[in-house]
C-alpha cells in the first residue's frame, strides 16, 4: 500500500513540476524557436534536457536530505537570505500567474468565443475549486496528471498530422547547423526557472518523501518531471517543424495556435484551445501552490491556512488581469528577474549541499555539484544580460 501511495505522490510531484513549466510561454517559446532554427532546434532541446535534469537532481536531493524547504535552507546559510529568495519567487510567480490566467482566457476564447476576461474567471474558479476540497494536494496531483496526459495525447496527434521530417530532426539534433546558446538558456529558464525548480521538491516534502533513504524515489520523480515536460516539448517541436518544413507561414500574433490550425485544420485550432487551457490552468495551480510554500514557514497562520492563501493568490492574479490586463512592465521585470532567480537559488542549494549542519553525513555527488556550478555561472551571466537589456523598456 505504501509503495502504491509513494508512486502516486512521485508522479504527482513530477506532473506538478512538468505542468507548471508547460504554460502559455512554453508553447509560444517552442514554436517560435522551431520557426527560427528549424530541425536544429532539436539540439537545443537535447542540451536543455540534460541541464534541466542536473538542476532538478541538485535541488530536489538537497531538499529531501535536509528535510527543509528552500527558504529555510537559505536562512540557515545566511539569516535573511531565505526571505530574499521567497520574495523573488513570490513576485516572479505572481507576475507570471497573471500571464497564465490570461493564457487560459485566450484558450477559452478559442474554444467557445468567450471573452478572455470571462475565460480567466472560469480558470480561477476551477483552480480555486481544487483547493477547496478536503484533500486538496491529492486533488492537485490527480488534476496535474490528467491534464499532463491530455496535453501529451493532443500534441502527439497534431505532430502526427503535420508529418514532420523525422530523419532530418534526428540528424540535426546530434549535428545541428547552428548552436543557439541563448535558446538553450531560455529553455532552461522556462523549464526549471523561478518557482518551477521547487514545485515538485516542496510537494514531495509535504507528502513526507524525505531523508537520505528516499533519494532513489526523489531521483525518479525529478527525472520523471523533466521527462514529461520534454515529451511535450519534443512533440510540439515536431508538430511545428512539420508545418514550417512545408513552407507554411505561422501567424505572428499566435504562433502555437497557427501550428495546430495549419497541421489539423479547424479541429486542430480547437485542440489548441484545449491544450492552452490545460497548460495555463495547471501553471496557475503550480505557481500559486509553490509561491505560498515559500512563505508558509515564516508564520504558523500561513501554514495553518495554506489553502486559503493559495486561493487568495489566484484571486488577486485574476483580478489584476480582469481589471487592468497584463501589466507589461511587471511581466518584463518578472521575466528578467526569473533569469536571476535560478542562479541565486541553485547557488544557495549547492553551498548547502556541502554543509553538515544542513545535510548531516550525506555526501553530495561531485559531478552534480560541478554540473550545478556550470548552470549557475551561465544563467547568472544570461540573467544579468537580460536584466540590463530590459531596463530601458522599464524606465523608458
TrEMBL record:
Upper classification of the organism: Bacteria, Pseudomonadati, Bacteroidota, Cytophagia, Cytophagales
UniProt protein name: Membrane protein YcsG
Keywords on record: Membrane, Transmembrane, Transmembrane helix
Membrane association type: Multi-pass membrane protein
Chain's gene name: ycsG
Record-annotated membrane-spanning stretches: 37-55, 76-98, 118-136, 143-161, 181-201, 222-244, 271-295, 307-324, 330-353, 365-388
Database matches in Pfam families: Nramp
Species this protein is from: Pontibacter amylolyticus
Range of residues in the leader sequence: none
Tree of life domain: Bacteria
InterPro entries on file: NRAMP_fam (IPR001046)
Subcellular location: Membrane
Amino acid at each position: 500500500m505504501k509503495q502504491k501511495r509513494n508512486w502516486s505522490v512521485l508522479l504527482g510531484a513530477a506532473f506538478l513540476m512538468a505542468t507548471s513549466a508547460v504554460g502559455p510561454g512554453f508553447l509560444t517559446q517552442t514554436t517560435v524557436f522551431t520557426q527560427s532554427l528549424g530541425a536544429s532546434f532539436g539540439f537545443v532541446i537535447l542540451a536543455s534536457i540534460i541541464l534541466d535534469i542536473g538542476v532538478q537532481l541538485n535541488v530536489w536531493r538537497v531538499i529531501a536530505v535536509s528535510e527543509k524547504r528552500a527558504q529555510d535552507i537559505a536562512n540557515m546559510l545566511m539569516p535573511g537570505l531565505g526571505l530574499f529568495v521567497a520574495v523573488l519567487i513570490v513576485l516572479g510567480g505572481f507576475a507570471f500567474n497573471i500571464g497564465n490566467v490570461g493564457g487560459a482566457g485566450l484558450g477559452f476564447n478559442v474554444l467557445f468565443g468567450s471573452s478572455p476576461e470571462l475565460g480567466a474567471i472560469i480558470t480561477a474558479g476551477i483552480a480555486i475549486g481544487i483547493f477547496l476540497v478536503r484533500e486538496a494536494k491529492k486533488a492537485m496531483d490527480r488534476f496535474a496528471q490528467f491534464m499532463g496526459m491530455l496535453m501529451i495525447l493532443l500534441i502527439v496527434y497534431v505532430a502526427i498530422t503535420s508529418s514532420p521530417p523525422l530523419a532530418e530532426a534526428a540528424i540535426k539534433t546530434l549535428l545541428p547547423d547552428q548552436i543557439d546558446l541563448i535558446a538553450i538558456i531560455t529553455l532552461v529558464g522556462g523549464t526549471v526557472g523561478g518557482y518551477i525548480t521547487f514545485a515538485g521538491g516542496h510537494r514531495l516534502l509535504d507528502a513526507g518523501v524525505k531523508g537520505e533513504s528516499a533519494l532513489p524515489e526523489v531521483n525518479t520523480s525529478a527525472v520523471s518531471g523533466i521527462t514529461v515536460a520534454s515529451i511535450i516539448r519534443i512533440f510540439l517541436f515536431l508538430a511545428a517543424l512539420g508545418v514550417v518544413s512545408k513552407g507554411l507561414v505561422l501567424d505572428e500574433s499566435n504562433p502555437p495556435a497557427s501550428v495546430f490550425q495549419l497541421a489539423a485544420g479547424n479541429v486542430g485550432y480547437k485542440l489548441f484551445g484545449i491544450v492552452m487551457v490545460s497548460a495555463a490552468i495547471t501553471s496557475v495551480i503550480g505557481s500559486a501552490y509553490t509561491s505560498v510554500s515559500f512563505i508558509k514557514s515564516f508564520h504558523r497562520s500561513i501554514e495553518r491556512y495554506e489553502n486559503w492563501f493559495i486561493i487568495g493568490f489566484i484571486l488577486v492574479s485574476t483580478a489584476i488581469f480582469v481589471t487592468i490586463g497584463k501589466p507589461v512592465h511587471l511581466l518584463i521585470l518578472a521575466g528578467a528577474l526569473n533569469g536571476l532567480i535560478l542562479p541565486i537559488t541553485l547557488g544557495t542549494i549547492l553551498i548547502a549541499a556541502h554543509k553538515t549542519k544542513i545535510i548531516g553525513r550525506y555526501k553530495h555527488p561531485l559531478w552534480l555539484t560541478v554540473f550545478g556550478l556550470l548552470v549557475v555561472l551561465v544563467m547568472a551571466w544570461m540573467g544579468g544580460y537580460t536584466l540590463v537589456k530590459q531596463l530601458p523598456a522599464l524606465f523608458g
